Amino acid sequence: MQDNWQEFDRQIQSVLQDAGEKVPGRVWRAVSSRLDSAASAALWWRWAVPAFAAAAIVAVLFLTGTIGTPVSTSGDVDILAETEVISSQDSTAPDYLASLELTELEPAAEAGRKVERRPSIRQIAVTEPAELPEPVEEVSEEPAAISDDSAAEERKDAATAETYDAEAAAQWARIEKEENRHKSEGLKLRSMYAQGSVGGNDSNIKYGGNGISQMAPGAGSSDSGITEAGQSTYGVPFTLGLGVRFGVTDKLSIGTGLDYSLLTRSFVGSYAYPGSYYGGSANSYSGHIIHTVQYLGVPVNVYYELLQTRDDLMKVYAWGGVEADYCISNKYSLLTMVNTIVPDKAGGFQFSAALGLGLEFKLNDFLGLYADPSVRYFIPGNQPKSVRTDKPLMFNFDAGLRFNF
Amino acid sequence: MQLFEDKAHLIERMLEKAKEGDRRAQKAIYDALAEKMFALCIRYMGDRETAEDVLQDGFVTLFTKLDTYTGDGAFEGWARKIFVNTALMSLRKNDVLKESEDVDSARSMTSETPSAVQDLGYKELCRMIAELPAGFRTVFNLYVVEGYSHQDIAEELGISVTTSRSQLLRARAILQAKIKEREKN
Q1: What pTM was computed for the model?
Q2: Which of A98, A126, A186, B21 is deepest in the core (most CB within 10 A)?
């Protein structure tokens, strides 16, 4: 009897051992989706913590002024002496004008910098086939159904698979069409971006060999009536921008747009104003002056993707470019004389070139975390004095949240 | 127990990439194993719907634990254990392994000479196994198809060796009865 059962078992084993059942396509889609989720979660924890830590450190450094510490420059001694004489001799001027002390300007507000992060068509083609349905092959076993229900289920699966196959084929056709159009047209609009950046000065960058920055063309040389004395304290340069990015290849893209930049500084100086203020005889103001220069710029940047995670959660890229900034405003505010704005000559271009690295981390489809260090050189020219003319080589470190459109 | 040669080679080629999370390599391994593992899951679970869930859980476990496969032994054997364990976990979770009958009643049904099963098709045999009570079906699958000993089965299912034996006898007897009934018809 035992031998009979062994034979019985052997026969059953031979029937069942290598048998297979047709698997509905939804199983792989579910498996793939769960693997994606698991990978995303793992990647999130692997990168988010250091990324947030880095962003937090940078933010703290900016807020505490360790990065972007306002740079002091030496003033013209002769002008300073002259100003002191004027101040001491001007007995009719209010006392507080003479006793003004230098105070640092508040750092400009920080803002995020948006960099395009949409995957190219080729990237879609590489990453998405896992989501496409696999061809379903019939099992070589007997076609008899286990039950009517399972047969109906199989028919339903087959119909679903056919529908899905059709959708997949259409998707691939669209991808190929886009790819071909992309190739034929050369450039394809890839994304739009909005960016904000804060450029900090590296106070360790020295010029002039004595650790003190050289003086850029002085404001006092203009016709505005402003005479600069003492050191300048710079606010952190602040830029906002909108732009578009065109894909050249799957890794290479070109971006351009429009940037607005605000540069500020403060210094002690004097202003020889027309007419008489306060009923006194002296026609000059002496004290704290805020100088504001605004630019509109057009950047042209080239981006090259170096690394990208499989799920497009993080990418590293290198970028470089040039920018032409047009000076739209150049004016001085006399700190203690409310509503006294002294305009100066604006216009002209400030050219610059930049090189940088970028790290993008995708939080979701619309929000990204980034860290984007770069070095920018401002080509000397006939521009109003600013941190750009005084320290033409600037280190920028953008960090923050990025919104994708 | 062995895969077709080309599938085994395919898996071998894809293994390293799949360990790194390459979805295409994982898909290739899935394609090579899915049908056989689905059949296994159906045999243990008794219906396609729950078998799909177990298949899905099994593959997620397989791919997330892929780096623990050292290469000792056939990959399919390693994978098969994962699916068997996943099915057993599901059965334990649903508390369906408690069914048993006493050995005497089982023995009373084993006096006849077993009928040949070669005339049965896979689907028909699969349907008959699916109709077995869950406890009997599980012991039958583990003993007859997977080659577990009664000691292993007892430890795996948390039952006694005697219960394992009785359930196997009972399962065989029920199957035998079904086959004979089919022959009569």
Answers
A1: 0.41
A2: B21
Residues of B within 8 A of A35 (CB-CB) are 21, 23, 26, 60, 63-64
Judgement on whether residues B115 and B159 belong to the same structural domain of the protein: yes
Q: Per the structure, how many domains does chain B have?
A: 2
Please indicate, yes or no, if residue B98 is contained in any of the structural domains.
no
- Do the chains contact at A27 and B124, CB–CB below 8 Å? no
Instruction: Give A239-270 pLDDT, tens digit per residue.
Output: 887 777 787 887 888 888 888 999 988 888 87
Cβ contacts of B172 on chain A, cutoff 8 Å: 5, 8-9
The span from the CA of A41 to the CA of A35, in Å, is: 10
CATH of the domain at A260: 2.40.160.20
Domain ranges, residue A350: 38-125+183-403
- A130-152 burial code (b ≥16 CB/10 A, e <16): bebbbebeebebeeeebeeebee
State the nearest Cα–Cα gap between B71 and chain A, in angstroms.
Answer: 22
What angle, 0 to 180 degrees and rounded to 10, lies between the N-to-C axes of helices B150-157 and B75-93?
Answer: 50
CATH code for the domain of B14: 1.10.1740.10
Distance from CA of A317 to the nearest CA of B (A): 22
